[in-house]
């Protein structure tokens, strides 16, 4: 083989070997003790951001937390449960705007809209359930009356969980 061709092949092989070594070195894992402080990870216990001695760290909270909207069947309950304790510990009163839901936090509020007529009501979640069929919420008699579902028994609804500002009245329905 021509010495010039052999020399150029050797140079290319050495160059390729050097590139491979540099690439391998860049991809190599380093042990935690060799990690530079500039790129060290922060443990969950360490505060984030600059700290001033004696000052409290400020926490930025989002203005509004987006909550999921649910669609499904609602039913109502009342006569057999009046006077009994709910999951929240309250005594059930079917004249109050309350509801039972499987996952919304007890004490939270929700707006329930009857999809067949557009009527809606704000309720306090004070109980767990429903446990019949594919229903997603059980309303008190007062809440069911407010959205016009007493005669239907079961209707399609939209549930909008509310923030603390949404509020639920303490009104009753007689």
What's the helix-strand series?
HEEEEEHE
Q: From the 3D coordinates, which CATH architecture of the domain at 70-164 would you assign?
A: Beta Barrel
Mean pLDDT: 74
* General form: elongated
| Count of helical stretches | 2
CATH class of the domain at 70-164: Mainly Beta
As laid out across the biggest beta sheet, the strand order is 1-5-2-4-3-6
In the predicted model, the low-confidence regions spanning at least 5 consecutive residues are 27-52, 165-174
Distance between the termini: 107 Å
Number of strands: 6
Classification by helices and strands = alpha/beta
Using the coordinates shown, work out and report the CATH topology of the domain at 70-164.
Barwin-like endoglucanases
The biggest beta sheet is recorded as: 6 strands, mixed, barrel
What's the gyration radius in Å? 32 Å
For CATH, the homologous superfamily of the domain at 70-164 is named as: RlpA-like domain
Q: Tell me the helix content.
A: 10-25%
The percentage of residues in β strands lies in 15-25%
Plain-language structure description:
- By secondary structure, this protein is α/β, with parallel strands linked by helices.
- It has a domain of 95 residues: Barwin-like endoglucanases (Beta Barrel), CATH 2.40.40.
- The chain is 18% helix and 22% strand.
- The chain contains 2 helices and 6 strands.
- It has a 6-stranded mixed β-barrel with strand order 1-5-2-4-3-6.
- Strand 3 and strand 4 form a beta hairpin.
Helix and strand arrangement:
Layout: H1 3-27, E1 70-76, E2 98-101, E3 109-114, E4 120-127, E5 135-139, H2 141-146, E6 155-162
């Amino acid at each position: 083989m021509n010495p010039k061709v052999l020399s150029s092949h050797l140079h290319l092989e050495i160059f390729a070997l050097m590139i491979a070594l540099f690439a391998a070195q860049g991809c190599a894992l380093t042990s935690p003790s060799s990690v530079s402080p500039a790129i060290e990870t922060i443990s969950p216990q360490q505060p984030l951001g600059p700290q001033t001695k004696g000052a409290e760290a400020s926490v930025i909270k989002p203005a509004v937390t987006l909550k999921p909207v649910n669609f499904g069947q609602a039913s109502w309950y009342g006569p057999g449960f009046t006077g009994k304790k709910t999951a929240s510990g309250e005594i059930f009163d079917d004249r109050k705007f309350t509801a039972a839901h499987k996952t919304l936090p007890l004490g939270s509020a929700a707006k329930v809209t009857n999809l067949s007529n557009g009527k809606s009501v704000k309720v306090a979640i004070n109980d767990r359930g429903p446990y019949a069929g594919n229903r997603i919420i059980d309303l008190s008699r007062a809440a069911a009356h407010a959205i016009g579902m007493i005669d239907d028994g079961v209707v399609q609804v939209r549930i909008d969980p509310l923030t603390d500002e949404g509020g639920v009245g303490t009104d009753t329905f007689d």
